[in-house]
Amino acid sequence: MVQYRSTSDKLHKYLVRYAELGSFAGERHNYLKCWVDEPNKHADIEELVHNYTLSFNRIFLVLDYCPMSNGGMKGRHEGFDKILVEFTLNGSWVNGYESRVEDITPRPPLIDGRLCIAQYVSFWHFFKRDIIQYSAGCKVVSSSRAVELMRAEISKMLANY
């Protein structure tokens, strides 16, 4: 059980079934990446509603919670939920791209001058922030939900100008 204080100062309680400590590219904060029972009502992608990232500096309390009814608490051994997202890079990004752990193939193929990258994504917010750096040199091509979300994000960005 983790108690977490949000940026709006609201206290949340989560029953964590799987967790890893870590960070994300370009982030200075450390996170508890976790799969929890409580679905995220604000998740952009339905398949990822149980995946949470909790900033260490906002974790209020961690309890060792193991109820003994019904044979004890069941853990989650398979890790985080994930979706397959494919995107392409072109121009100078083709030679500058460094393969990542999330990449399905160690060196993505080059097709029609575009680097075709497939990744399993568990945390949409951080994936989106990461690929936005490629700007017009990047195009999300699947899943359809990922394409829709990127299109909406770019439209919001464009509305600022």
H/E element order: EEEEEEEHEEHEH
Number of E strands = 10
Structural class label: alpha+beta
Global morphology:
globular
Major beta-sheet overview: 4 strands, antiparallel
- CA(first)-CA(last) distance: 44 Å
Q: What integer value in Å does the Rg equal?
A: 18 Å
Strand content: 25-35%
Tally of structural domains: 2
- How many helix segments? 3
- Poorly predicted tracts of residues: 68-73
Mean pLDDT across every amino acid position: 88
The helical percent reads: 10-25%
Spatial strand sequence of the major β-sheet: 8-9-7-10
Q: Describe it for me?
A:
The protein has 161 residues and is an alpha+beta fold. It folds into 2 domains: 2-71; 83-159, no CATH class. The chain is 18% helix and 32% strand. The chain has 3 helices and 10 strands; from the N terminus they run βββββββαββαβα. The strands form 3 sheets. It has a 4-stranded antiparallel sheet with strand order 8-9-7-10, with helices on one face. Strands 2-1-6 form a 3-stranded antiparallel sheet, with no helix packed on it. Strands 3-4-5 form a 3-stranded antiparallel sheet, with no helix packed on it. The termini are far apart. Mean pLDDT is 88; it is low at 68-73.
